[in-house]
Amino acid sequence: MNISKEEVLHVAKLARLKFTDDEAEALAKDMESIIGFANKLNELDTEGVVPTAHAIPMSNAFREDVVKPSFDRDAMLQNAPSKEDGGYTVPKVVE
User: Fold this and answer.
1) What is the mean pLDDT of each run of 10 residues along the chain (95 residues)?
2) Superfamily name and number for 5-42
3) pTM of the predicted model as reported, rounded to 2 decimal places
């Protein structure tokens, strides 16, 4: 599968990333290599192989949510440069 520099730059724009033309070309080559490897995996004979989600057996250990004593909110916020409604306020990072 061929991935063009323009496709990389388009996806980067959607993700709000900026790459130089050289970086975009290098990423296009890397992505082609990764997709090529994934296509090779698709060619493997997996007949009789049981699908798995984890390489080792795993199980979730669920517990009840229990409210426990924690830090004093006012003490935690006393050195905050900016706070509002009992929480920290931070600069906007996503438009």
Assistant:
1) 93 96 96 94 89 80 89 91 92 86
2) Glu-tRNAGln amidotransferase C subunit, N-terminal domain (1.10.20.60)
3) 0.51
